[in-house]
Specification:
The structure holds two protein chains of two kinds.
Chain A (H helix, E strand, L loop, with lengths): L4 E3 L2 E4 L5 E6 L6 E7 L6 E7 L2 E4 L8 E4 L6 E5 L8 E8 L7 E2 L3 E5 L1
Parallel strand pairs in A: 2-11
Antiparallel strand pairs in A: 1-3, 3-8, 4-5, 4-9, 5-6, 7-8, 9-10, 9-11
Chain B lengths: L3 E4 L2 E5 L4 E7 L6 E7 L5 E8 L4 E4 L2 E6 L4 E6 L8 E8 L4 E3 L3 E6 L1
Parallel strand pairs in B: 2-11
Antiparallel strand pairs in B: 1-3, 3-8, 4-5, 4-9, 6-7, 7-8, 9-10, 9-11
The chains are: A mainly beta, B mainly beta.
């Protein structure tokens, strides 16, 4: 079946602009995660959804970052007033229940000029 | 704060060798330990997941072990092939989120 998909695959924006990154999880998976990976590092947790609600947003670096999952399926990560330090690969993952294998999408590479 | 460390950071071996990648974690309250593979410019592919009640998992030429008391996991790759070249990441799951190590960049030379 279809895996986790993310769009766009690449996003280049200018400092100060607003961006939205989209994640389509595996159908039926109730848990959805966002991670951020900088070059040469392992992914770092940003936020976790169980259904429509954000169960853990402790990894969001500041209030410029926000994520939604209004219908419990697709999620959007929103970044306001982008900064050069936001440049990274943003990874989305989903799992059936939240305490089992996480399946990752291909990521969105964000470059802030 | 949970920390996950992977040693070595990079490893280069000739084709056919057996090898071991190491992962250590600081928090013994582990739920799962998951090993991933990441190819350059790609997302993560799950290789093996070991639940806290288990000591090891096997898939083909891969075997992962978990020792909660010492805070260690190892990934054993048998009869390595050039196609195994990738970055290998271990991830600790104490609640729902994963905490990753920095990865081991593996190169298998033909």
């Amino acid at each position: 079946g279809a895996g986790v998909s993310q769009t766009p695959s690449n996003k280049v924006t200018e400092k100060g602009k607003y961006v939205e990154l989209r994640c389509d999880p595996i159908s039926g998976h109730t848990a959805l995660y966002w991670y951020r990976q900088s070059l040469g590092q392992g992914p770092e947790f940003l936020i976790y959804f169980q259904g429509t609600g954000a169960a853990d947003d402790s990894g969001l670096p500041n209030d410029r970052f926000f994520a939604v999952r209004p219908e419990g399926s697709v999620s959007t990560l929103k970044i306001q007033r982008t900064e050069r330090g936001d440049s990274a690969v943003y990874l989305c993952a989903s799992s059936p229940t939240g305490i089992d294998t996480q399946y990752f999408g291909p990521g969105t590479r964000l470059t802030v000029l | 704060k949970q920390e996950v460390t992977q040693i070595p950071a990079a490893l280069s071996v000739p084709e056919g060798e057996n090898l071991v990648l190491n992962c250590s974690f600081t928090d013994s309250a582990i739920y799962n330990l998951q090993w991933f593979r990441q190819d350059p410019g790609k997302g993560l592919t799950s290789l093996l997941l070991i639940q806290s009640s288990q000591r090891e998992q096997t898939s083909g030429r891969l075997n992962a072990s978990l020792d909660k008391s010492s805070g260690r996991s190892t990934l054993y790759i048998a009869a390595s092939q050039p196609g195994d070249s990738a970055t290998y990441l271990c991830a600790f799951q104490g609640a729902q989120k994963l905490v990753f190590g920095q990865g081991t960049r593996l190169t298998i030379n033909p």
